């Protein structure tokens, strides 16, 4: 590695053009924050517009001994796209129109294209990229984080829809490589491309991907069910899976506290239940092609829910086409943020353990920090849980270090007690790398670090998957 | 590497027990053939019964400088499980009862358990491992090959259902490692376990896996549709995807010739169409939970097919619960084998290119080898095609080298002309490694080879993913 040279900027300017290099503090500010707020410190921002320009930026930065962090829409939550004195390589201009192949049900899409733009293009063909998120990340960011979202239950994460990738390797030479083909079925080699899904930008820069699309459902019906006990959520889930099979497209859980915080802090919402918020509720969605009418979907939901109301396991239910119910679900993060400082735990356990886990975790947290308001919600259908807590605004600023202490306690319960995941869908970044080191066995970290150094010998991104392992980190 | 020592057998016997080592030629014969017939030459067969014993076998073989080939149910088609003077490490005794977690919809299953045994255990809970195959491979073999099968359209390949793995690394020390957790959503590190799916046994030995299960459909209805033209298959597929969405669980294509060969050579079948075999037919399956009655599924099929019959795009259709129709589909390979020597091409192209490809490939093959009977069938719904040909029995033995020459022609059309896959679902092994070298760009092979050597430095299995690459192979 050579030292940063004064001609770095000149070389980059020659490679990608005068206006595509940002230095001034006001220009950089936006690039230094992500979905959790500020946290970055960019040396400069480079905005290449093609794979060739991305390769040039990597070569130049490497030659000048400057680190590079690839960045998408800055909606990440783990900090993996924020710089620490390094060059931000923004993919925002690698964003040509998505090429939809309607017969193949695929899209070839540049890494900087936002999810919303891909879905707008797909919708013209009656198709959708079925990863449902509150945020609007770029496709490249979605691959780096392997995002899941609210329809994981039916369609899985980004990995499951990933057919081919174009990448620029962080090997010092900016080598470009195509991994995979634009076809659905392919077992013609070692599966290298899947390493990039969930790689936190630490293996190279994805510049383009071919992803599988799904038919856009013609009919969709939702129910928000007020449950007498949280445990009834699993019973409802299992009944619906048996009855409705693959028509079940989402099964979300919302604690009474999370619902209350959304309703009291997000004025546009109106309370779904006349009798006040229940201890727990489930947001259920069935969706189908146009051969299955919405009325039938409503009947299926009704047949599952009515007996629960009759015998007191559910206390109320709202069934409709879902817009207002999803609005409640999507308003929860805003409700929590408005109520105070949020301590977020993005975890997953076995579906059958979910309610026992949340009770045990709530008891452990409340015993130690009675001030914290526990307001969890999440994806009951796949065992994912946003076990989030709020330090109420009225108590003033959250004490330094508290959030990390709480997370350590919760994550230890998840991993040691439940063989669960301490990062179900947000991935690894500077904000949770310490937990990665703590909860990942040393031999696994050592192997991951070796794989990372082999694929990205020049180094890229913010995450060292070999952190703390015996044979050392790349740095 | 040390030289093979005479005490290899004694050391293995001490590690796994007297009766679990096979040497005699009659005992070895069965272990030297797979789904395509003979081809192996085992030095001996070791049958460990646990991960610890697997690790011991790897350590001992390595210390004695003897190569090891992991083997499952020998149903593979690429030869990846056959030995070449090496030790066969059979997983057949690593096969405890599958542990089904019905609430989580997962199974923890030993690598040597056959698919049929996993599905029998899952069915007791109303669940299924949704990889539908003609053969009955072990779970470990399915992971090594990343099998797809006839319901890929809805449920994808093994990779998509893979939650966690226990592996023994081929690092000379027999290091055991657990990769992943028994949860559906996990993004807490670099995704190493996916490298093992489609690894052809060349990275280490999978001893146990946690896989996701799906609800067993309560109702299922099939149609075999005789099409006036092959191109009508795509129209029917797209209509059904729009109408039926995720209820569509299979969409297979069968050429008239493949149908004829099955009907004339498999006596148990009866012809589905009174008017003789059409140029092409589609086998379509809809399946659902018990909220969607079979009658409704039948109506949906009827509504899609009737207009096609009325305007002449389809000439006939049989709709029933599917048993006899799937029997026709599954009898095709037997029909072809009985008719002569089969030249199999397991390829995939974009769905929209499938019919154009098969016409072009058929024209090219027939022009050069008019004796070959082209009898293709496959998975129209995912672009996978068994572009198979028969050298008729009446012409005597197939000329030496012909099969490879035909495959080279067909694969070149697939890869160069269509950006398709020359190995859609059977994976890589000694039988197609030359095609891997030919069709995989050198930089990709070089990278794959480096990853393989990093993870399996002691070497294992039959495939060198770095074959022919500049920085050399492990051997």
Automatic annotation (TrEMBL), chains A, B:
Q: Which cofactor does the UniProt annotation name? A: FAD
**Transmembrane residues, as ranges?**
none
Keywords in UniProt for this one? FAD, Flavoprotein, Oxidoreductase
Keyword Oxidoreductase in annotation:
yes
- Gene3D superfamilies attached to this UniProt entry: 3.30.465.10, 3.30.70.2190, 3.30.70.2740, Uridine Diphospho-n-acetylenolpyruvylglucosamine Reductase, domain 2
Listed InterPro entries: FAD-bd_oxidored_4_C, FAD-bd_PCMH, FAD-bd_PCMH-like_sf, FAD-bd_PCMH_sub1, FAD-bd_PCMH_sub2, FAD-linked_Oxase-like_C, FAD-oxidored/transferase_4, Oxid_FAD_bind_N
Q: SUPFAM superfamilies, alphabetically?
A: FAD-binding/transporter-associated domain-like (SSF56176), FAD-linked oxidases, C-terminal domain (SSF55103)
Domain (FAD-binding PCMH-type) ranges? 36-216
Q: Which PANTHER family match?
A: D-2-HYDROXYGLUTARATE DEHYDROGENASE, MITOCHONDRIAL (PTHR43716)
* Record protein name field: FAD-binding oxidoreductase
Provide the species name: Sphingomonas canadensis
């Amino acid at each position: 590695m050579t030292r940063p040279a004064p001609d770095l900027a000149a070389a980059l300017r020659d490679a990608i053009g005068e206006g595509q290099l940002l230095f001034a503090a006001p220009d950089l500010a936006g690039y230094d924050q992500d979905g959790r707020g500020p946290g970055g410190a960019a040396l400069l921002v480079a905005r290449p517009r093609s794979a060739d320009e991305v390769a040039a930026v990597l070569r130049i930065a490497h030659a000048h001994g400057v680190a590079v962090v690839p960045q998408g829409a800055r909606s990440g939550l783990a900090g993996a796209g924020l710089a620490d004195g390094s060059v931000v390589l923004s993919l925002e201009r690698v964003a040509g129109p998505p090429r939809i192949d309607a017969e193949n049900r695929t899209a070839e899409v540049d890494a900087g294209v936002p999810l919303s733009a891909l879905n707008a293009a797909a919708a013209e063909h009656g198709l959708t990229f079925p990863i449902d998120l509150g945020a609007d990340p770029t496709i490249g960011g979605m691959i780096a984080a392997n995002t899941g979202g609210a329809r994981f239950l039916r369609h899985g994460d980004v990995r499951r829809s990933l057919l081919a990738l174009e990448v620029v390797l962080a090997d010092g030479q900016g080598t470009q490589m195509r991994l995979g083909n634009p076809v659905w079925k392919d077992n013609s080699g070692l599966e290298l491309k899947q390493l990039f899904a969930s790689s936190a930008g630490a293996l190279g820069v994805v510049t383009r991907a071919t992803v599988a699309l799904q038919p856009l459902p013609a009919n969709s019906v939702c129910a928000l069910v007020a449950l007498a006990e949280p445990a009834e959520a699993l019973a409802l889930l299992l009944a619906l899976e048996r009855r409705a099979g693959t028509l079940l497209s989402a099964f979300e859980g919302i604690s009474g506290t999370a619902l209350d915080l959304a309703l009291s802090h997000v004025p546009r919402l109106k309370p779904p239940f006349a009798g006040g918020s229940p201890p727990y509720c489930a947001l259920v969605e069935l969706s189908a092609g146009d051969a299955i009418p919405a009325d039938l979907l409503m009947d299926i939901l009704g047949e599952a829910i009515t007996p629960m109301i009759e015998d007191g396991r559910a206390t109320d239910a709202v069934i409709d086409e879902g817009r207002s119910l999803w609005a409640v679900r999507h308003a929860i993060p805003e409700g929590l943020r408005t109520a105070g400082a949020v301590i977020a735990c993005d975890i997953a356990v076995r579906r059958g353990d979910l309610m026992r886990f949340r009770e045990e975790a709530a008891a452990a947290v409340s015993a130690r920090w009675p001030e914290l308001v526990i307001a969890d919600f999440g994806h009951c259908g796949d065992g994912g849980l946003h076990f989030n807590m709020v330090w109420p605004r009225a108590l003033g600023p959250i004490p330094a270090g508290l959030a990390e202490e709480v997370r350590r306690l919760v994550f230890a319960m998840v991993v040691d007690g439940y063989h669960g995941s301490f990062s179900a869908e947000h991935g690894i970044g500077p904000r949770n790398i310490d937990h990665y080191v703590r909860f990942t066995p040393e031999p696994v970290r050592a192997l991951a670090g070796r794989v990372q150094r082999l694929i990205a010998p020049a180094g890229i991104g913010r995450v060292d998957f070999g952190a703390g392992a015996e044979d050392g980190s790349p740095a």
